[in-house]
Amino acid sequence: MEASASAITGGRSILERSPLARLPDRVLRWGLTGLAALILVIIGYFFVRLIGQSKDAVSQFGLNFLFGNDWDPAHGIFRAAPMLVGTLITSTIALLIGVPVAVAAAVFINELCPQRLRGILAVLVDLLAAVPSVVYGLWGVFVLIPKLLPVEKWFASTFSFIPWFGGGTVTGPNYFIAGLILAIMIVPIVSAIAREVIATVPAADKEAALALGATRWEMIRIAVLPYSRSGIVGGAMLGMGRALGETIAVLVVIGDAPVIGQHLFNQGYTLASVIAAEFGEAANVHVYSSALFACGLVLFVLTLVVNILARRFVVRGAHGRRGTGAAGLTVADAAAEAA
Amino acid sequence: MTTTALPELSARRRVTDRVMRSTLVAGFILALVPLILVLYFLIKHGLGTWTSGFFTSDPTGSFFGNPGGIRSAVLGSLEIVGLATVVTVPVGIAVALYLTEYGRNGRFANVIRYFVDVMTGVPSIMFGLFIYIALVIAHVGGGFTGWKGAVAIGLLMLPIVIRSAEVVLLLVPSSLREAALALGAPRWRVIARVILPTALPGIMTGSLLAVARGMGETAPLLFTVSTATVLTANLGDQMNTLPVQIYNDITSPRQAIVNQAWGAALALVALILILNLIARAVARRSAMT
Amino acid sequence: MSTDQPTERDSPDQTTDRTEASAGAGHGVTVRGLNAYYGQQQVIKGMDIDIRPNEVTAIIGPSGSGKSTVVRCINRMHEEIPGARAEGKVELDGLDVYSAGVDITAVRRLIGMVFQKPNPFPTMSIFNNVAAGLRLSGTKPNDLRERVHQALRSVGLWEEVKNRLNAPGIGLSGGQQQRLCIARAIAVEPEVVLMDEPCSALDPVATLRIEELMDELKTRYTIAIVTHNMQQAGRVADSTAFMLDGELVEHAPTTKIFTQPDDERTEQYVTGKFG
User: Fold this and answer.
1) Is B34 in contact with A184 (Cβ distance < 8 A)?
2) Residues 6+ apart with CB under 8 A from A112
3) Within the 171-210 window of chain B, which residues sit less than 8 Å (CB to CB) from chain A?
4) Cβ(A249)–Cβ(A181) under 8 Å?
5) Which ipTM did the prediction report?
6) What is the pLDDT of residues C60-111, one digit of tens each?
7) What is the pTM of this model?
């Protein structure tokens, strides 16, 4: 039987498809794999080129490029400590203001507000991310800065005894405004992740707390927040990554002063802003552009590190302690279990 | 039997509960306040500039006289993001298909997934810088051009498209896949005829959200397209775009030009919100489960 | 547990005078006219039942009969589910826990609950798990330690964990975790302990240990246990209630339910004619 079948099909069993018919699948497979690999190639290529372009500035100024406090393009001196410090300061302010607000909003939406409102309120918080950074910048320059100036002046003079936070002259654009706008911009990210993580808290844990006679807040405190902690930390780190790299909104409200501001309400600079602000001038001056690219390299590495660290927390938070089920019993669930 | 009250909650616990709950509510409201304020001022300062000439004339770019409209900016944005979308969405879907249909949980696929994830966290200025180094400085096909901006924006959109497409493709029930394969259909046909059509609404949602994101980015355009005022359809030229137009106008000492910025910003936000709404409508329509 | 030592039990939580019971007398629960709903669907229909003090009352019945819902109505956990509500009278020593102005958290301090699947707090140590309820009510640290140890002894877990009180609660075996949850529930000295199929997720050895525990605990607490396992009811319960379709069919001493039930439906259920 087999012998005659293979004679008909010319030595191949009828179950095999001809090599030609298999071609589209092969092409598709290798094509798609190639495209996927392209991503790695692009990232790698970018790294290589960026390092290449930064080499001159770094070789000229050495490690001091990053730790020296002296950015003077007119005299060809490029030491970017003010930018690095400014980036860290503004991102820290953004975290200090943005994370508590984002987590509070997430806890409120998931645990306190009526279920039918949850969807729409979550969408509203997410819409904060839909506003482009240039619009936040515009709003920051013409609304936030003038309106907060009197408050900032009052704060600086009233609390002048606190080092750095108080005292000093208050300029319109300053670290604080930049940090505040960054805080607003990271709230949607941190909140979305916090909501996801909080939703994985097993209903059983929450019930255990309530059955012990906990108030709603106590239930949140002992059952929800500890469980969500590492995920929320991951979300905060992702927010930080976003804050580190934000360019336009910061550029227009920080004052672009290549110095390390002595007070909270002084002007400063960030790594991202300096690149955008000065790349035009630097275009024809080799060491100048090289210095800007070096800033870019530092920023790139910084954001990569923060993002990679963040993802370990978020993954662990979501998977490390998977609970027994959905975050809350619904009518349908419970009715089915009513026994 | 004397019946009296049950033990009561201590005042401290009751107060703490109320205070903390109010704090959480306050935090939530605080989160929304900037959104409301931004929209309010956009409408307040921007709506007035929306005359008929605003969308039908180009910015004059001159310091004196009439600042003109934003026509070239709107069209430039549409062209550049349009080009980026046309290239990025198919590529993104292709990579997502690789991840769900071929690579699945293999080492290579997981590496790709990891880097796509990392890519979503890369600041937008990096994409601009990359194309600046790779294409602009090297003068590949001109200096600043519209299509280079499209490349930068496309790269920025790519991880978003890939991630959302992968989520959607994973939702296609494997029973559907298996039924088609069991009928003897080759894999490419199963993908083309069964999987993609089923996943289409979700992929559209993800792509629309990526487009909304792409429309709002400024930094990548600064380094690749630079700026212009005239209307041009030639992607080989420098072009005007909404975000860059706004950015340029912010620093102007002239109130009329600042007003133009508000009007342009309102237009940009309106465009993005519409894209968001369409995306969510598509998602809700298809989420019939 | 008597109420004549308020300062020791409840530091900041006030204890206003309650029904004066002499030392050692127990606390019973009286349910009258209980109706419970999930949304539009009514799952408990006009139920009356007495949970007698210092006894184990078992509630048995087929799936969907409403037995879990009944106990969850007693400590007002039922209404935590969105769309769920209950009405009727549930009296603990004469005071209706559903009356207006009653503080739910206080009710739950007095009526504790052990759940079907052991649910120790995953981020807390063994010690902190047992202490959780005590900390909420503001017990002073010295009292706290003593009471945690006492609770662990009461559930027979002390010898097994005394050297690793700081180890994570979820590191214990299933049976140990459930005993941990029981310790957590009794550490706050409730008057009633409700158990919702506490052994259904456990192996037979662990089940037996918990059944023995129930026998000891009933001298100090009033216990109501929901179970789908009739043999278990036979082993642990002083009286057994049979429920069907949200109604109480029959409630009688356990031996009677299983040997000479009054109602035909009870007889059919306990002889396995339907499940």
Assistant:
1) yes
2) A216, B21, B24, B25
3) 186-188, 191
4) yes
5) 0.92
6) 999 889 999 999 999 999 999 988 999 999 999 888 999 888 889 999 999 9
7) 0.87
